[in-house]
Design a protein that fits this description.
By secondary structure, the protein is α/β, with parallel strands linked by helices. Among the domains are: about 140 residues, Rossmann fold (3-Layer(aba) Sandwich), CATH 3.40.50.10860; about 140 residues, Rossmann fold (3-Layer(aba) Sandwich), CATH 3.40.50. It contains 14 helices and twelve strands. The strands form two sheets. The chain has a seven-stranded mixed sheet, sandwiched between helices. It has a five-stranded mixed sheet with strand order 1-2-4-3-5. Strand 11, helix 10 and strand 12 form a beta-alpha-beta unit. Helix 3 crosses helix 14 and helix 6 crosses helix 12. It starts with 6 loop residues before the first helix and ends with a helix. It binds nicotinamide-adenine-dinucleotide. The site of nicotinamide-adenine-dinucleotide has 20 residues, from helix 7 and strand 7.
Length: about 425
C-alpha cells in the first residue's frame, strides 16, 4: 500500500492535527497514536470441493478507556490490517463524540464473500468467532455488521459465541435480526440520525428545511432512507439522486415510490420519467440547498470543492470529502457536517440494542427514534459549542476539527482519570 494512501497513516495525521490545535498532552497523544490490541487470526474452512482453505482475519481494539470496543466486521478481498487499524481509530472518535459508553474497535476477513456459498460463509463466520474466543464479549468488544456482512452473519456469530460461553449471550454482537433480539429502528438508524443533524444544522443556519432542495448521491441503505425520511419528516424536496450508474435531476422534485419501483424492477434509476439525466459529478455541483453524499469516499476533492453550490454538505457516507476539499469548503463558509457525527445513528442504535440485550426488555421503534434524536442532537450541540468556544478565543476551526477535539479530549480525560498516563 502506497505510504500516502495508507489509511492508518491518514488517521494518525488527523489525530496529530487535532492534538496540535487542542494542545493535547504528549503522553495521551503517544497512547492514542497506536491501537491497544491487534489480533491476527488464521481460520480454516472446509470448502465445498473437499479442500480446506485458510482465511486470514483481524480484530483490532483501538482504545477501551471509555468502555468496551465497538465496531463492525468487514468481509473484503482487499481487506488489510492498516484499513482495520484506521477504522478502529475512527470508531473510537465516533463513540466518544456520541458520548456512548464504548471505545473503538474493528474487524475484517480477507475473503470474497461473492465466491462463497452459504455453508462456507457460515463456517468462516463461526470460525472467526472461535478464533477470537474471549477477545470479544459484551463487556470486552462488541462487533456489528459492516461491508459485505449482514444480520444473518451476526446471528451465526452470536450463536457461536454463546456455545463458547455456555449460555445465550445476545449482547455480544449488534445488528442482529429482530427474532434474535436485534433492535427496532436499526435498519434506517443511520439515515434517521443524519436527518436529525440536518434539522439542527438548518436551524443554526436559519434555513427553512421545509423549503430546502436536496441532492443525494447514492441510493443504497444510507441514501435511500435519507430520501424517504427527508420527504416524510420535513416535506423537503429531493431534486436529484444517483447510484453507481449515474443520476437524475428534476427541479420539481422526484417521487420516492416511483424510484423504489424502478430500482426493484430495473435495478437502476436512470429511466425515471420527467427527469434530466446527470452524472455523479454534476450532482455534486447542482444548485441545491443541501448536498448529501451517501455513496463512497473521496467524492468532493480539491478539483470540485470550488464548484459546490449547496449551502450545507451533510456527510452521510464515510470520508466523502478529502482533507484538501475540507479546507476549501471551510474557507468558502459552506456548512460541512462531518461524517463521524452525521452517520453516528447506526452505532447509537447499536448501543440501544446492546442495552436492551442486557436488560432483556425491548423498546418500541418510537422510543428508539426519540432516544436517538436526544443523543445525536446533544452531540451536534456539543460540537457547535466547541467550535464557538474556539472562535471566542480567536481561533476559527471547522466543524470537523471541533468534533475531533471533543472526541479526543473525552478519551484522553478518561485515560487520565483511570491513571493510564
Ligand atoms: P450501499 O452499498 O447500500 O449503497 C451505496 C450506494 O452508492 C448505492 O446506491 C450505489 O449504487 C452507490 N454508488 C456506488 N458507487 C458510486 C459512485 N461511484 N457514484 C455514485 N454512487 C455510487 O451502502 P450504504 O450502506 O448506503 O453506505 C453508503 C455510505 O454510507 C458508505 O460510505 C458507508 O460507509 C456509509 N455508512 C453507512 C451506514 C449504514 O448503516 N448503512 C452507517 C455508517 C456509514
Amino acid at each position: 500500500m502506497a505510504e500516502e494512501l495508507n489509511p492508518f497513516k491518514i488517521s494518525q495525521e488527523q489525530l496529530d492535527k487535532a492534538a496540535e490545535v487542542m494542545g493535547l498532552d504528549k503522553n495521551a497523544h503517544t497512547i492514542l497514536r497506536e491501537p491497544k490490541r491487534i489480533a491476527t487470526l488464521n481460520i480454516p474452512v472446509k470448502m465445498r470441493d473437499g479442500s480446506t482453505k485458510v482465511f486470514t482475519g483481524f480484530r483490532v481494539l483501538y482504545n477501551d478507556a471509555r468502555g468496551p470496543g465497538k465496531g463492525g466486521i468487514r468481509y473484503h478481498p482487499s481487506e488489510s490490517i492498516d484499513t482495520v487499524k484506521a477504522l478502529s481509530a475512527w470508531m473510537t472518535w465516533k463513540t466518544s463524540l456520541a458520548n456512548i459508553p464504548y471505545g473503538g474497535a474493528k474487524g475484517g476477513i480477507i475473503c470474497n464473500p461473492k465466491e462463497l456459498n452459504e455453508s462456507e460463509l457460515e463456517s468462516l463466520s463461526r470460525g472467526y468467532i472461535r478464533a477470537l474466543g474471549r477477545l470479544i464479549g459484551p463487556k470486552v468488544d462488541i462487533p456489528a455488521p459492516d461491508v459485505y456482512t449482514n444480520p444473518q452473519i451476526m446471528a451465526w456469530m452470536m450463536d457461536e459465541y454463546s456455545k463458547i460461553v455456555g449460555y445465550d449471550e445476545f449482547g455480544v454482537i449488534t445488528g442482529k435480526p429482530i427474532e434474535v433480539w436485534g433492535s427496532e429502528g436499526r435498519f434506517d438508524s443511520t439515515a434517521m440520525g443524519g436527518m436529525y443533524v440536518m434539522r439542527e444544522a438548518a436551524k443554526r443556519m436559519n434555513m427553512d428545511i421545509t423549503k430546502a432542495k436536496i441532492a443525494i448521491q447514492g441510493f443504497g441503505n444510507a441514501g435511500k432512507f435519507a430520501f424517504e425520511l427527508a420527504t416524510k419528516l420535513f416535506n423537503s424536496k429531493v431534486v436529484a439522486i444517483s447510484d453507481s450508474s449515474g443520476g437524475i435531476y428534476s427541479e420539481d422534485g422526484l417521487d420516492y415510490d416511483q424510484l423504489v419501483k424502478l430500482k426493484e424492477t430495473k435495478g437502476e434509476i436512470s429511466s425515471y420519467e420527467k427527469a434530466e439525466k446527470i452524472t455523479n459529478q454534476q450532482l455534486l455541483e447542482l444548485d441545491a440547498d443541501i448536498l448529501i453524499p451517501a455513496a463512497i469516499e473521496n467524492q468532493i476533492t480539491a478539483e470540485n470543492a470550488d464548484k459546490v453550490k449547496a449551502k450545507m454538505v451533510l456527510e452521510l457516507a464515510n470520508g466523502p470529502v478529502t482533507p484538501d476539499a475540507d479546507q476549501i469548503l471551510f474557507e468558502r463558509g459552506i456548512f460541512d457536517a462531518p461524517d463521524f457525527l452525521v452517520n453516528s445513528g447506526g452505532v447509537i442504535v447499536s448501543y440501544f440494542e446492546w442495552v436492551q440485550n442486557q436488560e432483556h426488555y425491548y423498546w418500541e421503534s418510537d422510543d428508539v427514534y426519540k432516544r436517538l434524536d436526544k443523543i445525536i442532537t446533544k452531540s451536534f450541540n456539543d460540537v457547535m459549542k466547541t467550535k464557538d468556544d474556539y472562535a471566542a478565543k480567536g481561533k476559527k476551526i471547522s466543524m470537523r476539527t471541533a468534533a475531533y477535539i471533543l472526541a479526543v479530549s473525552r478519551v484522553a480525560q478518561a485515560m487520565k482519570t483511570r491513571g493510564w498516563y
